[in-house]
Design a protein that fits this description.
Protein name: FAD-containing dehydrogenase.alkyldihydroxyacetonephosphate synthase
Distance between the termini: 41 Å
Keywords: FAD, Flavoprotein, Transferase
CATH topology of the largest domain: Uridine Diphospho-n-acetylenolpyruvylglucosamine Reductase, domain 3
CATH class of the largest domain: Alpha Beta
Family: Belongs to the FAD-binding oxidoreductase/transferase type 4 family.
CATH architecture of the largest domain: 2-Layer Sandwich
Radius of gyration: 23 Å
Largest sheet: 6 strands, antiparallel
Strand content: 15-25%
Strand order of the largest sheet: 12-14-13-16-17-15
Pfam family, one: FAD_binding_4
Number of strands: 17
InterPro entries: Alkyl-DHAP_Synthase, FAD-bd_oxidored_4_C, FAD-bd_PCMH, FAD-bd_PCMH-like_sf, FAD-bd_PCMH_sub1, FAD-bd_PCMH_sub2, FAD-linked_Oxase-like_C, Oxid_FAD_bind_N
Length: 535
Amino acid sequence: MRRWNGWGDDSTTKEVSEHGGALIRSFIGEPKALADVSLESVMAKVPASRLPKHPLISTDAEERVRHARGQSFPDWLAMRSGDFDVFPDGIAYPETSTQVREILDLAVEHDFIVIPYGGGTSVAGHITPQENAKAILTIDMGRMNQLMELNEESQIATFGAGTPGPQVESQLQARGYTLGHYPQSWELSTIGGWVATRSSGQQSLRYGRIEQMFAGGKLETMLGTMDIPTIPASSAGPDMREVTMGMEGRMGIYTEVKVRVVRVAQEEKFMVCFMPSWEAGKAVAREVAQQKIPMSMMRVSNAAETRAHANLGTTLKQFKLLDGYLRFRGLDDNRCMLTFGVTGSKLQNKSSMKQVKKILRQYKGIGGPLANIMGSIWAHGRFKFPYLRETTWAQGIAVDTLETSTDWDNVDNMMNGMEESLRTALKDEGEEVMVFTHLSHVYGQGSSIYTTYFFRCADTYENTLARWKKLKGNTCDVIAQGRATISHQHGVGRDHAPYMPAEKGELGMRVIETLIKDFDPEKRLNPGVLIEDDK
């Protein structure tokens, strides 16, 4: 069963090895856990609903609790402490576009707020209700989860917007096709949510980001239904796909999503090798992207992350064997892990690997018998990392992430600035922070930067949130001022909304605000998300 106050299925855990835990404590000190509250105690706080009675709307207390928060760090603290402040007044479960249209019309008639909810995986505050004089309805799209049509001639698949990643792939692969979109949240996140937040999957080098996959669909707005046709290319003004993507529910709610799919590949392999330095690993990734070698993924971990993963993902015996082998091959503590994949026909993959191995040799990469074994281990557990927060939290250790993207000439400056900001943000409290980074998506122009940080919980929930705000706020300022995006793949939500003007500029913000005002003048759709409405 899905956890009500954390990530994923309650039967799944990601254990931290004893030596991995020791590594974290060596950075941050001995932690002390905070007490969690029970679901029953939170349900007792849920107030009476302000919504009108309607057959599509449930006002059940437990359902309102389970839809009250996403997976941002403040959401996590709210769920663990029981201090939710605001709950949605009800949850709607539409099964058709017509029913979504009916709910939006009802929102106009009874003047209430609407929050779209896909898989509830937001780490940026997209679905968190705010104090409002009006009633708040969360629309759970989870029952719109079917492959509605597959046009094999044009390779266009139509899905209900609430279809989660595993069901997207299982329904497509049963017909011999794949979308190939695998974000870290793939287990729970939905295809409509991917489009609404401009998501990126782990194998974007082959399949592209969601903007390359999104072909059209149906958007229910406060003004009516917008049908976006599946035209392969057009020079007839702005592209309505691009206009509506990334609007995070502010213009309307996607109910049907049409995507470009491809045949399932003949072969897929993931491999891990080790580079002598960060510069060498980064150079390999850049060369692969700029030469357009047909890989499916390329990820570079810096030395700190390489050490962390080696400890967290192995037994002590395995770690010693790996460490000993790499030192024997001449790689010291500066070594960096390079994880990559090839997906395609056997002939294509053979050609790609030949080109990549040439670059690896040039930069003195070490693979050997480890490459396939460690690649398989990574592939098997690649969606388990979010479960780590559950394990560390029980020990009093908080973990969160920050991410951005920038041009190659700015990658080191940006990464170092982010890491330094995180490492020093709690110095005034005498607290240390463990920080590490990887490049998760690479492009000819530049790369994403994905940074993870661990810190000790404070003595109270309130003080723990204050620590996070310093870590997050200081580092978001670094990003906003550093020629980089405030979000490469997590979206904007509420947490990143204050930093949008730095990236978009005055006129860019005017475009976004004008669209929102025109489509939703009464601000009923997800107010406060994407832009700060009160500014």
